[in-house]
Amino acid sequence: MSTRNSNTGAEAVSDALVQIGVTHIFGMDTPEPLYMELDPSIRAITVHDERAGAVMADAFARASGRVGVCSSIRGPGATNLVSGLAEAYNTSTPVLALINDVAAPNLDRNPIQGIDHVRLLEQVTKWGRRVETPERTADYVAHAARVATTGRPGPVLLAFPDSALLGGPAHTADIAEAAVYPRVRMAADPSLIDAAAEEIAAAARVIVIAGGGVHLSQAYDALQAFAEHLQIPVATTPLGKGAFAESHALAAGVVGAYTIGKGARGELANQAVREADLVILIGTKTDSIATNEWTIPARNQRVIHIDIDPIELGRNYKGLEIAGDAKLVLEQLVRAAAPRTAPSDWTKALQKKVVDWYADFERLDLSKSEIDPRQIYRTLNALLGEDDIVTTDASYSSAWGMDLLRYKKAGRKFLVPRGFAGLGWGVPAAIGAKFAKPDSAVYCVTGDGGFGYVAMELETAARYNVPICVIVLNNSILGFQKHYETHRFGKTVETSFTSVNYADFARTLNCDGIRVTTPVELDEAMNKARSLRKPLLIDVVVPPDAKPPIGTFASAPADARH
User: Fold this and answer.
1) Mapping DSSP to helix (H, G, I), strand (E, B) and coil, where does residue 310 land?
2) Do residues 40 and 10 make contact, with C-beta atoms less than 8 angstroms apart?
């Protein structure tokens, strides 16, 4: 690697960021020496809370296929990053966090905001370092980007004391490629591919469950070719939603705890997995939500598990374990497995159930005076272009979205916090996604509980002229908490809010706001959201008893257990 000199460490960092393809930094304008020297090609986006900056960087990375970058001041700024980076860590999203650190002479002398940032964030980052010398600043940026995008991606941390950024001269690394992912692809052991082909040939009811790793690998064409080669249905995990075009005849739906029970689109996929004699898991860490507490598939079902991270193989399911990049492994399997000319009767029966379900969904009764939240997603299905993006918060907005939204083209266009499941994710994610994909329409669906965490970031969207549409499900309660407590304990303690008109609030933040209370008003408002000039908030008044069909409520209620 050849190097040249910069005047300061800050200049070297800025140059390295340009070389790895960084175009935006989300956070506060710190480390200050870096921001003072930031290359004009990098846009600094100042937020109201560092956590929101981490979320914006996460969504930017998911939507763009490049590393997202966030920044914070030391101490309280860094602690604000924790939950945002935790979501990125659990969804394997490459985010680079840049933190201003305490000067070396002041370490362990009780300096204000002094904390060991690497130790603080080690549970929510893949790798982190404190960089002491200006000579190594650019090298560490290059290496951090390499770690974030290699193997199983994830967030990384660099902490810079001012001395490392103000001192110099510093070396600026010549970096060969931008920080995109996957940086390196690894094929599987050929003997395991042959073994998998034999198992597939011997099975009568095969189904794929595609996870978020298919997005990370960008294995969309390979997955479709594999499914069509074998004429087998493809389900996805919540994080894998969109990995397979949901209008495709072999699309089964989203599996797991948040698409379960009578009336759920995903229950068709869940039931198909229960009936399968072979389940092929691709790019999923088999977490509790995706598997409904490790019951879908059942522990005793025959499984082939494919993942880039060998640690995940065999963690929750025993079966044939294949380590490798999803795209390459699927291409290997297509070459090795004998083709099937037509779907089985079992697959055909599933396809008919899916067609019938969508026909019923299109007949959703909108004549009632109250708004059925499912209407939002039915209308979005009609509005969304092939490259448009929907973000949601955790809880109900993501549960309804993953079950009801229907993406006609494969891709990562449904961005949800299903890794760590923190509220307050949807709005900053929409902002980050819009910066990544300015030509795509971006919609955010959130509840009033989640919106309350990050409401001021609407001002951020207005300040930077980011025309997103935020749809707030306003039921004046913490919906999941109230329904869960009532279901489990037969009562709830304090889960209600005062009545708030969020459309009025949005207008005070220089955004447009529309309040709707009837199904007709909702459709009219959403149809105004396709070509926005400024951020729009649609305050949707929904009944407080509306809830999606999720596994939590499939068990017997409290009064039936006593």
Assistant:
1) helix
2) no
Q: Which has more confidence, 253 or 552?
A: 253
Residue carrying the six token digits 């229950």: 267
Q: What distances in angstroms separate CA 454 from CA 59, 258, 348, 470, 479, one per listed residue?
A: 15, 24, 45, 12, 18
Closest by Cα among 472, 457, 471 to 510: 457
Q: What residue type is assigned to position 560 of the chain?
A: A
8 within 8 A of 27, measured Cβ to Cβ: no
Least confident span in 53-57, 142-146, 163-167, 457-461: 163-167
Separation CA 172–CA 135 (nearest Å): 8
Question: Which among 231, 329, 331, 326 is positioned nearest to 284, based on CA atoms?
Answer: 326
CB distance 450 to 422 below 8 Å: no
User: Could you tell me how many residues make up the chain?
Assistant: 562
Give me the mean pLDDT over the 488-515 stretch: 94
For 129, how many CA atoms within 13 A lie in the half-sphere containing its CB?
15
Residue ranges in 363-414 assigned as alpha helix (H): 374-383, 396-404
Give backbone dihedrals phi and psi of 53, rounded to 5 degrees, phi first.
-65, -40
Q: Provide the b/e sequence for 384-401 (b: ≥16 CB within 10 Å).
A: beeebbbbbbbbbbbbbb
Report cis status (omega within 30 of 0) of the bond before 31: yes
pTM of the model: 0.95
- Give the per-residue pLDDT at 559: 56
Residue type, 21: G
Residue 549 DSSP class: -
Q: What is the spatial distance between Cα 318 and Cα 360, in angstroms, rounded to a whole number? A: 38
Q: Taking 50 as the threshold, does the pLDDT of residue 277 lie above it? A: yes
